[in-house]
Structure formats: C-alpha cells, structure tokens
Amino acid sequence: MLIKIFTARNSNALKLPPGPKKLPLIGNLPQMRRPELPHHHMSGLAKTYGPIYHLRVGELTLVVLTTPDIAEEVLRTHEINFAQKPLSLSTETMMMDKNSSFMYAPYGEYWRQLRKVCVLELLSVKRVRSFQSIREDEMRNLVQFVRSSLGRPLNLTDEISSCLTAIISKAAFGESYKHQEEYLSALKEGIELASGFSIADFFPSIRILRYISGRKWSSVRQRCDKISSRILNDHKRRREVLSIQEVGSAKEDFVDVLPRIQESNELGFHLTDNDIKSVILEFFGGGTDTSSVTAEWAMSELLKNPQVMTKAQAEVREALKGKELAQDLDLQGLKYLKSVIKETLRLHPPTPLVPREATKACKIKGYDIPPKSRVLIHVGAIGKDPNYWKDPERFEPGRFLESSIDFIGMNYHFLPFGSGRRVCPGIAFAMANVELLLALLLYHFDWALPNGQTPEELDMTEDFKATVSRKRDLYVIATPHSLGHD
Ligand code: HEM
C-alpha cells in the first residue's frame, strides 16, 4: 500500500494530462462518486480540463480522451500499446478462471487464436447468414405479437429485447434449448452487478475490499458456470451421435463449433471447457444489450422525428413491396435505413466509454501516460465533436447518405464499435439483426406514442448500466399498415 502511495506521489514528476485537484490517498474519488451518467459527467470535465485529462482514483490512473485526433493517436499510432483491456474486479470474478477470457485476454497468442476463431468461424458473414432462419422465426413472432396488440400501448423495449436475445441465444445454444432462460437470468444479474465502478477496483492492494465485493459476484458466476457446463456437456454428448457430415456444417450453433475446434487441437494450445464457456458468456454479455438498445434508440429517434420515420418507411415499403413477412428479404438497397442505424449509433453508442489499458509508459499529445493507466476513449463525445459533425445534437441520418463514413473503426470521429485489433467482432451479426428488425417494424406498422403524447414530449432520458439504454421503457401504439400489400 505504502509503495502505491509513494508511486502516486512520485507520479507528480511526470507530465500527466491535466485534471482536477486530488485529495490525499483517495485522489479524485469524490468526482467518481457514482455520477448517474458517467459519460455526461466525463464530457463535462473535458470542458474544464481539455480533450485529454486524467483522474487519480485511489491507486488507479484514469485517462479520458474525448476527441477524434487523440483517439487516433491511441488507437492507431500506439495501437499495440493500448491493445489491452483493463480487468475490473467484477469482470475478473465473473470469469470461469483467471486465464479464460477472450474479451479481456492480454494481447498475445492466446487472444489472437481465439479472435481468429471468432472472426472466421463464429461471427463470419457465412455463419451470420446461416442464422437467417432463426432471425426469420423470431421476427415473425414479433410481428405477430405486435399485430395482436390491437392498438393498445405496447412495451417495445421489452419486445425488442426478447426478440434479439432469443436470436443470440438460439445462435449460441441451438434451436430450442431448455436451460437458456435460467442462463440469461443469471447473466442479467451478473451484468447489472458488473456495471459501474467498484471501490475495490480503485484500491486493488486492499485485499479485504476485494474479498467483500467479490463474494456477490462469485455466486452469480457459479450459477452461470453450472448452467453453461450442463449446456456444454449436453452439446458434446449430442456431437457424439451426429454424423460426420453434420459436424462442421453451417447448421452448427456456437456451442457446437467450439468443441469441434477443441478436439481438432488446431489452435496450437488446448482450448479448455472454461475457455469455451467464457467465449459464450462474453458473446451474450457483449452482444445482447448492445443490439437491443441500438434498435430501441433507433425507434425512439424515429418517433421523435416523424419526417425521418416517413422517409425510412417509404424506402422500406418500396423495397420490400409484396414480400412475405421475413422470408428471404434482401436489405442491400436500404441505404436510408442503414443511415438511420449509423446516426443512432453516433448519438447513442451503447458503450460510450471504451476502456483500454496502457501496457507500457508512452506519450500522448506530449503527456506522459504511465503503464497500467486505464484509458477511456469517449466515443460518445467523439461522435458529437462539433469540429467533425455539423449540428452534432441533431438526428439527421441524411448526413451518412452520401458519405463513406463507416463504423468499422477506420473513421476516428465515429467509433461505436471501437477500432483496431480489438474492434468489435460482432458487427455483421449485430447489423443483420438490427436491420431486419427495424425494416420489418417499419414495413408492417405505423407508429404513434400513447396517450396523445407528441414527438417533442417523448422522454429521451438515459440510464447507464453496462450499456446506455433508455431510462424509461418505450411505449408505443402500432397500427398494421394495410397488411404490407400496398
Ligand atoms: C450494436 C451492437 C454492438 C456494439 C455497439 C458493440 C460495441 C463493441 C465495442 C465498443 C467493443 C470494444 C471495441 C474496442 O475496444 O475497440 C466491442 C467488443 C466486443 N464485442 Fe461488440 N458490440 C455490439 C455487438 C456485438 C455482438 C452481437 C457480439 C457477439 C455476439 C459482440 C461481441 C464482442 C466481443 C467478443 C468483443 C471483444 C473483442 C476483443 O476484445 O477482441 N458485440 N463491442
């Protein structure tokens, strides 16, 4: 502990980025005292301290970056040095074992091999396409459910979330897996516990804090672990009775693919059962809420901006004229709808603070960044930087129509999926789900707010948990649109 305090004092010799005054021992902990919306709080601090600033919270150095040019310096110029994710205590406790994680694996051979499996096998365009029938079934159910609401107020937040979670869980576990509800409820609890900062993260050398905070997380982890072990073992047993042709076919779910790779030993190291369970857990953790809140914010913005809604509906209805529900829809031509999704991700990135860790000491914009500093790339503030975006607060999908700006991490003023080697590997999967869902909702229904609420009155207050969602669920009234045969 003394060593840590000494190091903290000594760090004054470095030229650190600016930041608020620090109290002895706790540093800027008062500034971190559970602000309800940390991303707004951090944008506010940038107004006082500039586009790169630092906070010292207990033993932790936190560096916040809020402009595209600084993000580029970190994510491109110093990419390898920042290719590491910081491990919070909650995440560490939720892991199956300390060495089993893809999302938090140190940048190195283990991560590289798992990343290859994710990109080439689990989340490839071919695999994402192979889940089309799952998407169609779930979305058909959603459309039928909305239709049966008969003009009554409908909780669209819940419906979007159930539909997208069902798709991801069927892609992971197979068509009808009996333990998925149990798994999802344990995972939801884990995600809620893991969101936000824990005091034990700020004082890692005080072991008792780790013990106290860790207890509640480890019980959730044990539940997830027990269920996923059961799921994995059932899949392994089923594999034993599958024919050779069926093994390795496009019909495999995620829990089929990973044991096949485990058996083949093609990675150069042994993939353990814990590795497999961690990948699945992280896909759920990283893929479910992010996709749901994107679709939910898109519908909210469309309701708030009726002219945009009309334009998006006109495009979708023209392109999908006379098509059956979700069958074989080609969404390639839906340029305006794609722009709506991009604009939604610009204004409402589900994870506005993307965390990375400095492996070694380096300089950014002339400031010293000590090793092990936690760096937060504020992609929320970056997406609203007035030097890069005209009328940044306005929802204006047209700005993406004639532009080549994409979200794959090459445009540093638009980073909803991060950038570089750690960029989100789930982009194709997320987009396939969100695009189809929005296309069908716009195609089949006209939308209004309940109780005579006007678009201006729609409350857009945010809530910050693991992702930034709406604080209040979105209620809507759906009216079937001429059964889609106009
Ligand atoms: C709209 C939906 C989504 C958004 C906005 C999103 C956003 C992100 C972001 C910002 C990162 C960090 C990137 C970085 O550090 O540069 C990330 C990483 C990750 N995402 Fe996503 N994500 C989405 C959907 C998904 C889906 C559907 C999956 C999988 C089923 C997924 C799996 C992952 C994984 C495994 C990582 C860690 C990658 C690594 O560390 O190498 N995400 N995502």
Summarize this entry quickly:
One of its GO terms (molecular function) is heme binding. With 486 residues, the chain is α+β, with helices and mostly antiparallel strands. Helix content is 50%, strand content 9%.
Report on the architecture of this protein:
By secondary structure, the chain is α+β, with helices and mostly antiparallel strands. It has a single domain, classed as Cytochrome p450 (Orthogonal Bundle). 50% of the residues lie in helices and 9% in strands. The protein has 18 helices and 11 strands. The termini are far apart. Residues 1-9 have low confidence and may be disordered.
Secondary-structure blueprint:
Elements: H1 2-10, H2 38-49, E1 52-57, E2 60-65, H3 68-77, H4 89-94, H5 109-122, H6 125-130, H7 132-147, E3 154-155, H8 156-173, H9 180-194, H10 199-202, H11 207-241, H12 254-264, H13 273-304, H14 306-319, H15 335-347, E4 353-357, E5 362-364, E6 367-369, E7 374-378, H16 379-382, H17 398-401, H18 427-444, E8 445-448, E9 462-464, E10 468-470, E11 475-480
Parallel strand pairs: 2-7
Antiparallel strand pairs: 1-2, 3-11, 4-7, 5-6, 8-11, 9-10
Bound molecules: protoporphyrin IX containing FE (HEM).
InterPro entries: CYP450_71D, Cyt_P450, Cyt_P450_CS, Cyt_P450_E_grp-I, Cyt_P450_sf
GO molecular function: heme binding; iron ion binding; monooxygenase activity; oxidoreductase activity, acting on paired donors, with incorporation or reduction of molecular oxygen
Family: Belongs to the cytochrome P450 family.
